[in-house]
């Protein structure tokens, strides 16, 4: 998470940044109650600074602090080896998260998207176009603003090792986001939700390293093709995963449960980011020394059988493969095979990494 680069505004990386930023556009289709288009006046009212301030007033300091503490308790219960932590330790951990959220709420109030391209507030806006005009602007700048607080959070919340800490932090943020969103109305959830999602994914996905990785034009062309369909591939892999393990029941429910599904889709997306980072770097090092180790530590603590992770990885690669052109397959094949191999032979990979650490 903290190994990213904030020098992102160059001609080489901006196309990838723009593609990645598209992940954080609001999904207005969830609010659709009829086939009528939204009106400009309705959308602009929702996006106004005054409306955003009202949303942040709902998420006041004490509510944020309470949500962080409750999420910390629930996170501790999910990680069996953390159940020895007492209430004071949990409170201390939770206190590290609230400044991050308060800063994110400040960003939400000041980073406003423009709708000025529409001449009249009466102009109808198709629902499938809304997400292209309202979203999280300048994700590189938001990452830069959050960096000091996230660095402090990381340095102060070390539980045992960096991978276990990352798992705890990601789960904590996921649960805190859920608690905060439940106090908002559907439109507010739609507008602020992408900011919360960005925070969670920023902690666990090396998107900045992906966007700044050096590569030739053919490799970049492959990644530009594949980044926009990361969600589509994640959904397809998860659907097949559910069919392969229909009776699996996690600590938070079955694979189809909305909460489990959300986390699974995030992780299937994370695996793709690591695949394309490995591809652009021309090396499987990040998969072997980061992704496999993270999966081993976190999934093991959550009680997820390793064979499910290996199978999920193969399913993901299969979905990626079907969406590649033949010339792209020739370039990607060694890296896709290396990713599967790293998970299949993870015991030796993990042992080698731990010796270095």
Biggest sheet, in brief?
2 strands, antiparallel
What is the strand tally? 4
Average per-residue pLDDT, rounded, comes to: 83
Number of domains: 2
Walk across the major sheet and give the strand order.
1-2
- N/C terminus separation: 18 Å
Overall form: globular
- What is the ordering of alpha helices and beta strands? HEHHHHHEHHHHHHHEEHHHHH
Number of helices: 18
Radius of gyration: 21 Å
Structure commentary:
This protein has helices at residues 14-21, 40-47, 49-58, 61-78, 87-95, 98-110, 127-130, 139-156, 162-181, 186-204, 207-212, 217-226, 230-244, 258-281, 285-301, 306-322, 326-344, 346-356, and strands spanning 38-39, 124-125, 249-250, 253-254. Mean pLDDT is 83; it is low at 114-122 and 353-357. It is mainly alpha-helical. β3 and β4 form a beta hairpin. It is built from 18 helices and four strands. The protein folds into two domains: 1-212, no CATH class; 213-357, Globin-like, CATH 1.10.490. It has a two-stranded antiparallel ribbon with strand order 1-2. Strands 3-4 form a two-stranded antiparallel sheet. The protein is globular.
Structure characteristics:
single chain; 357 residues; mainly alpha; Globin-like; 2 domains; two-stranded antiparallel sheet; 4 strands; 2% strand; disordered C terminus
Topology:
Blueprint: H1 14-21, E1 38-39, H2 40-47, H3 49-58, H4 61-78, H5 87-95, H6 98-110, E2 124-125, H7 127-130, H8 139-156, H9 162-181, H10 186-204, H11 207-212, H12 217-226, H13 230-244, E3 249-250, E4 253-254, H14 258-281, H15 285-301, H16 306-322, H17 326-344, H18 346-356
Antiparallel strand pairs: 1-2, 3-4
